[in-house]
Structure formats: structure tokens, C-alpha cells
Amino acid sequence: MERALDIQANLSSEFPSMIKHMLPSHVTGGFWLGLPKHFCLNHLPKEDRMMVLEDEEGKEFQVKYLVEKIGLSGGWRAFSIAHKLLEGDVCVFHLVRPSKFKVYIVRKKCSEEVDVALGLLKLESSTQLVDNGKELKICEISVGKTEDRNDPILYSSNLEPTVDQSKNNRVDLGSEVSDGIRLSESIVDFREVKSFEDFNILVNGLVIDFEFSKYLQMKYYELCCNQNSFLHENLLEGLNCKLVAGVIAETINIADAIRAAKLTTPHDSFLTWDKTLRSFEGLGMKVGFLRARLDKLMNLLTKSRRYKEAKLEQANSNEEKLKLEAKLAEVTHTLTKLDREIRLFKQENADDLEALFREVANGPW
């Protein structure tokens, strides 16, 4: 469920979304999926209607939405079986159109690739590459597939930009592949980079500088200079260029956020940054120095907060001490008063008061 919540948090807030935990009735037998009433009343049609469920691969399924029963019926069985949904799986429904859900599936026993996908889900709506007026195919991040792979990392089914292969329109572009993207003539060792002008970001033999603003390129150059290496040089081979660009951009953002952090920065922010960097590290990104800095900052943050807590506890304890001392003084005063009163009684033979009492009681009228 935590993974599903993370996915939902990264979806566009422009469209409503909901989470459904798969129960036996949802995936076996009747194959009926009840939906949250408040969600249906606020966002879904007011009459029975066919709706579309689109999975992570873009495949669409027609389902019947029943207003009175507040749920999905006809067609849900086909969707459930096609995606091998099991009890305990979680589906995130994103209402991208009035009658269309984008569905993200989180398996009960999902692989570690989800941790990487979560931090990069926002790339799905990022700027797309353009080649001769046509959109290039971008890797869609799948958070639901659990089939075995040679490597548990997300790969694009089309690792190189698509170019027009028509014989009538074929043009010799040399090292140019498309607007902004070009092939690198050779692999450059970072030690050969003497200035920012020599700095290029290479992925799968392609220069992807066009993916970044000059500001981001300069920030990344500074980070690489600090470590005397390309931070992305050990990334797993075959990763989609868009995915790598997203990893680099987010690494820069986190580095800037670390620089701007204060003692008042929420602890959860540090945890989120570290979780994201840990995912990037799993892909091969050289971010250990950033995680080490985060660890030091979190330790200092913990000490600072503990110091503030200790000072508050000290102030409260001193206040309690003053109250107890005042109470002790009051009790001491009472004891002193009682001691003086008892001494006076003793001077009056208070021990013989009972005999005196009987004498007075039995005396003549």
C-alpha cells in the first residue's frame, strides 16, 4: 500500500485518483469491483456508461460502470484476468478523462524496480523528443509488471531515437540523429575535460545535452568536477535516454536542495532525497557522496532536535522543581506551626487532658 501511495503522490494533481486494494471478490468468482462512493459522486458520470481502463503499456479495456451499484462490472473480469491480478495486489486509478482511467498495478510481491520507477514517474509527462515533426517513443515506466528479466531495471523497447527510414526521404545526417541529439564520435574520459566547453553528457553513445538547460548543464558539470568523473558513467547499459536525463536532473535538484537545507527543513524531506538517491545508486549513478552528505546532515539535524528537546525538558523540569520546592516550603511551614502548637499543649499537661476531662464531666453541678 505504501508503494501505491507513493505512485499516487507522483501523479498529476490535475486529475483525480484513487487506490483499490484487491479482495477475493475483485479477482475471482463474480469479478465485481466496487468503487469509493464519494469518488464516484464527485468525479464519475451520473448514468451507466462504458469506460476505458488503460494499463501501463497503453492497452485499453472496455468496462461497464454502473451508477446504482457504484462499481465496475462488464469488462472488469477481462482486465483482471489479462493482468493476472491476485488478492493483495493494489491498483491506482487515475481518471485522465471523464470516462477513462489510467491504471497502475502494484503487485503484492513486486520487484525492487518499483523503487526506481517511483522517483521517475513524473517523466511520463515530461517534454517529448521531436524528430522531423514526429514524436519519439519514450520509455513508459511500468510499476506493475513482475515478469522475470535478465536485469530488474526498466528498459525502453526502443533504445535509439526513431528516424524516418523511408527510401524516398532518407537523408545522410552524418553524426546528427535528430534535432538536438547527435552521436558522439568517441568515448571521452573525464580527465580530458578541461573546461565547461569540453563537457558533454553521453548516454548510449548519444550526446543528450539538449535535454538540459545551460544552468543544469553547468550544475552537473560542477558536480562531476567535484568527483572528477561523470556521475552517470557507470549506469546500466541500455537505459532509455529520457530515463537517464531524468536521473541526472533529479540528482542536480537534490544536490541543490541539500545545499539549501536548513535545520528547519522537515526530516521527511531528507528521507525522501535519500530514498531517491538510493534508487539511482542501484542503477549505477555515482551519488554516494550526496548520500554521505545527507547522512551527516540528518545526524546533525537529529542532534539539533534532541538539543532543543533536552532544553525544553530541562525548562519543564526546572519549572516542576520550583513547584515542588514551593510545596516543600509550604509543608515545612505547616510542620513548624504544628510543632509549636504541640509544645504549648505539652506545657499545659496535654497528656493529662483525658483525666481532667473526666473530672470536669463528673464534677458536681
TrEMBL record:
Keywords, sorted A to Z: Coiled coil, DNA-binding, Nucleus, Transcription, Transcription regulation
Domain TF-B3: 18-109
Gene Ontology molecular function terms on file: DNA binding
Pfam families for the chain: B3
Compartment(s) where it occurs, according to its Swiss-Prot or TrEMBL record: Nucleus
UniProt keyword GTP-binding, yes or no: no
GO cellular component: nucleus
Residue runs in coiled coils: 305-348
Transmembrane segments: none
PANTHER family listed in its UniProt record: B3 DOMAIN-CONTAINING PROTEIN OS01G0234100 (PTHR31391:SF101), B3 DOMAIN-CONTAINING PROTEIN OS11G0197600-RELATED (PTHR31391)
Identification of the protein by name: TF-B3 domain-containing protein
Phylogenetic placement of the source organism: Eukaryota, Viridiplantae, Streptophyta, Embryophyta, Tracheophyta
